[in-house]
Amino acid sequence: MTDQENKFLELSKQYEALKTQMKELKPQLHGLMEEIGVNNYIQDPETMLVYKVVRPTGTFISFDQIGYDRTKTTEEKRGSLSKKEAEEAGFTLSK
C-alpha cells in the first residue's frame, strides 16, 4: 500500500469518527440553542468570538431548524455574523 493510500485511510477514519461525534453532539447543541433563544448572543471570553442563535433560512433539501452565526476567526476572511452587528449588540471583539 502506498503512503498516499495509507494517509487516505487514516484521514477517512478520522473524518468518519468526527461525523459520528458531530451527529451525537448536534441534539445537545440544538437543545442549548433553544434554551438560549433565537436572536440572542453569546461571546467566548477566550477567543472573543461572538455567536448569535438564528433560525436558518433557505431552500435546502434538508436544513437545521436552529443554528448560529458567529464572528470570524483570525484565519477567516469573514464570519457569518458581522463585526458591526456584534459591536452594535454591545460586544468588544478584541482583548
Folded structure, characterized:
The longest helix has 34 residues. A hairpin with a 6-residue loop joins strand 1 and strand 2. The chain has 2 domains: 36 residues; 59 residues, no CATH class. The protein is an alpha+beta fold and 95 residues long. The model has no long low-confidence stretch (mean pLDDT 88). The protein has 2 helices and 3 strands. The N and C termini lie far apart (49 Å). The chain is extended and about 55 Å long. It is 42% helix and 13% strand. The chain has a 3-stranded antiparallel beta sheet, covered by helices on one side.
Low-pLDDT segments:
none
CA-atom Rg in angstroms: 17 Å
Number of domains: 2
**H/E order of the elements?**
HEEEH
Spatial arrangement of strands, main beta sheet: 1-2-3
Name the beta content range: 5-15%
Mean pLDDT: 88
Structural class: alpha+beta
In brief:
This protein is an alpha+beta fold and 95 residues long. Strands 1-2-3 form a 3-stranded antiparallel beta sheet, with helices on one face.
Features:
alpha+beta, 95 residues, 2 domains, 2 helices, extended
Question: How are the SSEs ordered, and which strands pair?
Answer:
Elements: H1 3-36, E1 41-43, E2 50-54, E3 67-70, H2 83-88
Antiparallel strand pairs: 1-2, 2-3
